[in-house]
Amino acid sequence: MPELWASPKPFGIGEQHPNNFWEVFRAIWENRDSLDYAYRILDQGVCDGCALGTSGIKDWTVTGLHLCNIRLRLLRLNTMPALDGEVLENVKALQSQRSRDLRGLGRIPYPMIRRRGEPGFRRISWEEALTLIADRIRASQPEHIYFYMTSRGVPNETYYAAQKAVRALGTNNIDNAARVCHSPSTFALKAALGVGATTCSYTDLVGTDLVVFFGSNVANNQPVMMKYLYYARKAGTKVAVVNPYREPAMERYWVPSDVESALFGTKIAEHFFQVQASGDIAFLHGTLKHMIGEGWLNDDFIRNHTAGFEELRSLVERLSWEELEAASGVNRKQMRDFARLVADANRAVFVWGMGITQHTCGEDNVHAIINLALAKGFVGREGCGLMPIRGHSGVQGGAEMGAYATVFPGGLPINEENAAKLSQQWGFTVPKKPGLTTPEMLELALQRELEVLWSMGGDFREVMPDPELVESALKTIPLRVHQDIVLSSQMLVEPDDTVILLPSTTRYEIPGGVTETSTERRVIFSPEIPGPRIDEARSEWEVFLELARRVRPEWANKLAFAGTEAIREEIARTIPFYDGIQNLKKKGDSFQYGGPMLCAGQKFSTADGKAHFKAVNIPQVSLPAGAFRVVTRRGKQFNSMVHEDIDASTAATRDGVLMNPLDARRLGLLSGDRVRLHNDFGTYDGKVLLAPVTTGTLEIHWPEGNVLVDPKARSPLAKIPAYKEISATLERTNGAEQREPVLKL
Ligand code: SF4
Model confidence over 262-283: pLDDT tens digits? Predict the structure, then answer.
């Protein structure tokens, strides 16, 4: 279909876009010492990258290859040998290394310990490590111990076993990486529809009338989604993007596994609506205002299947166009264009990412998207759906397994009744008070009240706002345990008393195999894959339970599983919608909990059986005079793991400050000028890159931009940090003579 070609130049030579073929050669070179094992992981395992979900290199959506550059980059973490323990004997030199260099040193070989005042780590046995940790936990208040789980390839079985073990220790202080991505989506979807996950399947994207991406760059974060969109475009689906930045890779993409697209690229999104940062609710209200005024709604659906529309109608009708334009950064005509696009679609899927959730109004942003979908009845029908797309392969299952401070397994609220039920099932007392989220835990540490932190993967220094404050908090904790496959910078933070490193297995090394849950709610079996092993690395689920048995020997027989199969059997008993997980035993086994579509037949699991509109207010943003709205974005990286200094999609360096040319002209700036962003929380030094980002908004990379994030700004329910809601002033820091002779305005 030449009309969809992005460029007549073969392979887009000379165009700015990622070279995915080069990534294949790079992966072969990087894994050359274990190519057969690397191949087996790709061929048999479930991808440990994003949550799109695979079985080997196939999926359930399209035929052909399912493989992307993220997975190829992550492969080495699974095949690399152990590091030489001697490098950790003195951590001073390591402290100045970048995280990617630390990871590149190799796998953690054996348990290690570092005491206060010691220059580095020394080897200890598992027995010594677990005895020391158990003794310390026994001597601590349960509210003063904390467990965090990353999403790095972590399977459902590990989340389930860990949360059970932690609850046996007398606390609900366990949280995971899902908190910082889609926790607001879960709250809003549950309130509006009675479900907490994507309502449709990926197959609904192909051939539907319209797919809209809100605050999401799947080309970067879920690359194989672009293949689905390629087929969708060929089937006549329109693709629109609502985002401050006209993401180049969302506009044109070269799908490497399809000959036509690999050669000529494909035009993917044709409609862009460039809201300003925090402008989504105003934009969506403006869209609805047009649709109400024009009578473009699905009145039957609203009347028969929903509640709360009149309140929303009266709110949007009261809002003036001037107010909506000022708050959204988009004019009335553009809102009408979007309204027309939505109105013309009989079926549509709305997809959103962290551009929507990582705000103090994260839950309301999601409600505003749901409102628009409900206005047209885009749920519970084929080709329709709401999709909070997940960026990490563990996060969908992590919270559903209950590895969460605010819910029990199955997403049940933490309260007396649910605690009593679980206590009866598990045979020990389950605490009934919600635990702390990670930002709350760090606040407790700053008050010197946290006694033990167990961090399974993750790197708070990189992920949480205000890295300096985070480091200060980590330094106050008497015992820190870091359980991981490779080194991270937080492990090297000076001990208050003791830091212990524990070596973990990857998901491919766990006997009995494991499962993950994808964005489309598909629970997928990933088998154990034969290959080289790190001798002393242990499966994380076993370690958690062994710790719990040591602390609570009286409950030892209740805190043991014969293997991952036994965990799956208990998951099926504890979480009714996971019934079926116990039958997953070999490569390719999977099932979608809830079936291909939730809310099928437009029946909703809310108390009144209806879908609920919510009249959400436009957030009030007060910008200091002359300040910009600033959002953080991903470059060539996987979540916080940076892979390259330059993003091949945008040409931005890691310190790039993406700025609209009109803003640059107003301030007398040229591309390449050094600038300093400043606010109450920190300063950020970067380099101007002229880019099609909306005026008044700047984009900088995450996690580097965390220095500007207000550590106290969180959404009210999910308590997600507001990584996309920064305001900062900007000044040029280079003189005219130091300017790089590049682009003229
Ligand atoms: S798109 Fe996601 S699931 Fe698919 S291969 Fe890439 S990282 Fe893995």
Answer: 888 999 999 999 999 999 999 9
Could you tell me if the CB of 524 is within 6 A of ligand 1? no
Q: What is the pTM of this model?
A: 0.95
Mutational test site, ligand 1, from 23, 52, 351, max ligand atoms within 8 Å of CB: 52
Work out which ligand 1 atom sits closest to the CA atom of 47.
8
State the number of CA atoms in the 13 A half-sphere of 614 facing the CB.
19
**Which of the 8 DSSP states describes residue 83?**
P
Lowest mean pLDDT among 6-10, 331-335, 595-599, 641-645: 6-10
Residue 72 beta carbon below 6 angstroms from any ligand 1 atom: no
519 lines ligand 1 (CB under 6 A): no
Contact predicate 412/432, CB 8 Å: no
Q: How far apart are CA 385 and CA 187, in angstroms?
A: 17
Please count the residues of the chain: 745
Our mutation pick for probing the ligand 1 site, out of 23, 65, 68, counting the most ligand atoms within 8 A of Cβ, is 68
Q: Give the model confidence (pLDDT) of 389-402 as tens digits.
A: 998 888 899 989 99
pLDDT tens digits, residue range 510-537? 999 999 999 999 999 999 999 999 999 9
Contact between 254 and 4 under an 8 Å Cβ cutoff? The reply is: no
Atom of ligand 1 nearest to the CA of 223: 1
Which distant-in-sequence residues (6+ apart) come within 8 Å of 737 by Cβ? none
DSSP label of 653: B
Non-local (6+) Cβ contacts of 599 within 8 A are 193, 194, 195, 199, 379, 380, 605, 611
Segment 632-648 shows an average pLDDT of 89
Which uninterrupted H or E stretch holds 164?
Answer: helix 156-168
Cα 474 to middle of ligand 1, angstroms: 33
